[in-house]
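During the no-cost extension, the postdoctoral fellow (Dr. R.K.) reprocessed legacy sequence entries with the updated structure-token encoder. One reprocessed record is reproduced below for audit purposes.
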Amino acid sequence: MKQKIRNAPSWLGLTDARTEFVYLPDRAEIVKRIFQYSIDGLGAYTIAKLLNAEGVPAFGWSKRWDQSTIHNMLNNKATLGEYQRKQVLEGKEVPIGEPIPNYYPPVIDKKTFEEAQATRRENLSTRRGRKGRRVTNLFSEIPRCSYCGSRVKLHNAPVKSLVCKRVWDGEICFRFKWSYRDFEETFLTFLQKNDETGRFKSKLEQLRDHVGQNDENGIYQARLAIVQHIRSTVVKLTIAFGGTTPQHEKIHRTIRRDHPNRYFTVELSNGTSYIGHPITPAKAASVLKVNSEGLCEQLGLSPRQGKLTALLAEGESLAFIAKELGMTLSTARWHLREIFRKTNAHSQGELINLARTTFPFTNE
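Re-encoded structure tokens follow.
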């Protein structure tokens, strides 16, 4: 006879006999949304406020989400299926023994969990504050790729960009991304132009006022109001990163930024549909490259080190570059230290300036 189970994480249930876990799809989707919000740069406070504004039912006795609940969920490896036995010592729960993997049905994968932790660490290191006051991505979980239908995710590189998830995962789709700042400006301008009631224009004016006053709390509140407006107004949003009929490219080709023919299509809650284009279409800068072979010759780097340096100069993150070059992040860091040694650079910023000065951007 199977041993009875005492309890389960809030996104799982138990059979009547309390001998097996029951997967709760609706709650599992909410957990996945919370992790994706975190990956897109939203803090626990902001995530809780968004879920409450949308009327998403909270888990447990409380009818509302709060910051601590979101924080604990994002830290909880039970979402990966791991069980950690605990006991209370001096009023605090402390782990006992080694965690047991594959104890629960997992609700997210390891990559998603680690991405969320990395983004949260970045938020703390950039001093955004525990409440995520920047609301980095106004479009979290909304856009889809026009070509394959996959979710569009935020790529947290030095130049933040939106990119098709299939491309990010190393699969085949059109290998271009859209600079986040450019997309946000384009889309907000579109919403203002099609704002019949004037309410959205008022929200934008409030945001500009708070930005002008450098009022962080006001900026946060204004951007959160814009997020809520977008989620209540936009029914469907798709992004065509490379125009109407692009050709798929090799999987290992660099993901370039801001194709001149990029556009989005959007369906609004009032039944209307539109196509939007960049306010000022990007020039060839989006497809300009740093000459990695020239860097090798001028700076005395190996071919891989030259490529790594060139990609850094083009605005890519070290984690992305490691994946692009087929190496682990630790190996990429080792190469970066060797590059620092060879070039007498003391930081990535200094190395990037050196690379761009040595070999300015040229047409690909």
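Residues 127-132, 282-287 have pLDDT under 50 and may be disordered. The first helix runs from residue 25 to 39. The remaining legacy entries will be reprocessed before the final report is submitted.
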